What we know:
Blueprint: H1 3-6, E1 13-15, H2 20-30, E2 34-39, E3 42-48, H3 49-57, H4 68-71, H5 85-95, E4 99-104, E5 107-113, H6 114-120, H7 124-131, H8 138-146
Amino acid sequence: MNVGHIMNRExxxxxxxxxxxxxxxxxxxxxxxxxxxxEKGRPVGMITETDMLSRVxxxxxxxxxxxxxxxxxxxxVCGSPDMDFIEATxxxxxxxxxxxxxxHGEHLVGILTITDAIAVHPGMLQVIEEAAKxxxxxxxxxxxRKR
Length: 147
């Protein structure tokens, strides 16, 4: 099964020059926990709720003046729509990422999450748990088991 068949095609992104406050507003508006960060339409990073907490709020930075590009997670690990689903899941675990933007050339076309992978193929939980022993936080793996 290819990633293109199961990825979420509705990806929310934000420009790297936007403020962290704008990013937080966009996350709230779309009910998502992360945004793919773009520069000139090309994906370059990811900003998550955790990035905002640890790199902005915890450091008492101003969310209105702090730009997304200064706190985003990078480099961005991407997959392709023709990538095998299991290969993509292993890539995510090996690189310690929970969300994998899917690109075709330099264009963002979708996103695959660990949660999506388990929803599509419940047997993947065991594979992810085994492979993720040193890559993903235990608390995250425990939450996956509950779904």
